[in-house]
Amino acid sequence: MRQHWIDPADTLAITRQCELAGVSRSTWYARSESESPRINGTDEVLLRLIDAEYTAHPFYGSRRLRVILARQGHVVNRKRVQRLMRILGLAGMAPGPATRKPHPDHRVYPYLLRGVPVVRPNQVWSTDITYIGLPKGPVYLMAVMDWHSRKVLSFRLSNTQDVTLCVGGLEQALKRYGVPEIFNTDQGSQFTSLAFTQCLKDHGIQISMDGRGRAADNIFVERLWRTIKYEDIYLKDYTTMDALHRGLTDFFAFYNEERPHQSLDYQTPSVVHATAVGGGALIVDRYGNPASQAELTSPCTGLNPIHASLT
Questions:
Q1: Residues 6 or more apart whose Cβ sits within 8 Å of residue 159
Q2: What residues does 144 pair with on adjacent strands?
Q3: Which of 131, 184, 288, 295 is 20 to 30 A from 245, comparing alpha carbons?
Q4: How many CB atoms are closer than 10 A to CB 304?
Q5: Could you tell me if 146 and 253 are in contact, meaning their C-beta atoms sit under 8 angstroms apart?
Q6: What distance in Å separates the CA atoms of residue 81 and residue 101, rounded to the nearest whole number?
Q7: Is 72 exposed, middle or buried (0-12, 13-18, 19+ CB in 10 A)?
Q8: What Rg do the C-alpha atoms of the chain give, in angstroms?
Q9: From residue 224, how far is each of 8, 47, 150, 260 by CA, in Å?
């Protein structure tokens, strides 16, 4: 009976609700999983296809994805594609309706990074969640990245997209690397939740959130997902979460310590993060004021301007 007292939509974290109700988290999550809608075999195939296509072409929305699926022999209507995109947490990069919606009672914070030069490590961190298909069902990967160095600071895996996944990854990064000045997320309910935003406030971190439907506002994490999937996940075809976790642990170590990054002048993220030499970022809004845009796109040593309206 006490399990019914716990409300995932409440601003109070699930962990705290479980404590107050005297229910173990494992018990609640087991019940929650058993009551959640099952993904049938056809949906699982479509989810994998949509995820792969979106990774290759993140500017595709539901209309184009429906056409792509039809070309591959899967004739489905747009509403079904939109439903599956919501499961994946996907939104096309072009400005438009968002598929990740904040809780109606959660505050949405303004985007703070357009036109702001990122010139040092720990100036800006960001995070996101991506879908990974396994034979026994979907798994969600959350990672925290430093924008200046592109270093992956922490990652977490879960079979649910709840706030504990995100808070856990955030706390892990804070414990290992200290406190950033600004933390950027999308407007998903996990990130607008009181548990997540309060954790940031408690550490004196400024909160920034992408504009609605503007995946390019968090372009560096979007590029990270593409790298992970093409250089590891799609090649290895993991079958269990344990194997996936081991594989990602190895891949992120390689990504941070060994893999040369073109945007870092072929240095590694760990070297740039440790030395503060190289790296940098600049998000430019091509729909902004023309006069200020000329200033923002002027040459700036160590920066990699990103036009937020481009794919």
A1: 33, 137, 138, 139, 140, 241
A2: 127, 154
A3: 184
A4: 15
A5: no
A6: 17
A7: exposed
A8: 20
A9: 29, 20, 9, 14
DSSP 3-state assignment of 124? strand
Q: Name the nearest CA neighbour of 131 among 176, 84, 95, 93.
A: 84
DSSP structure string for 186-239:
-S-HHHHSHHHHHHHHHTTPEEEEPPTT-GGGGHHHHHHHHHHIIIIIHHH---
Q: Is the pTM above the cut of 0.90? A: no
Give every CB contact of residue 207 below 8 A, 6+ residues apart in sequence: 109, 182, 183, 185, 197, 200, 201
Pair 87, 38: CB distance under 8 Å: no
What distance in Å separates the CA atoms of residue 3 and residue 221, rounded to the nearest whole number? 35
Tokens of 307: 């036009």
What is the residue-level pLDDT of the chain in tens, covering all 311 positions?
455 555 554 545 666 667 666 666 666 555 554 444 456 678 888 888 888 887 777 767 888 888 888 888 888 898 888 888 877 766 654 444 343 555 556 788 999 998 899 999 999 999 999 989 888 888 999 999 999 999 999 999 999 888 999 999 999 999 999 999 999 998 888 899 999 999 999 999 999 998 755 556 678 888 899 899 989 998 898 999 999 999 999 999 999 999 999 889 999 999 999 999 989 988 876 545 433 333 333 333 345 554 433 22
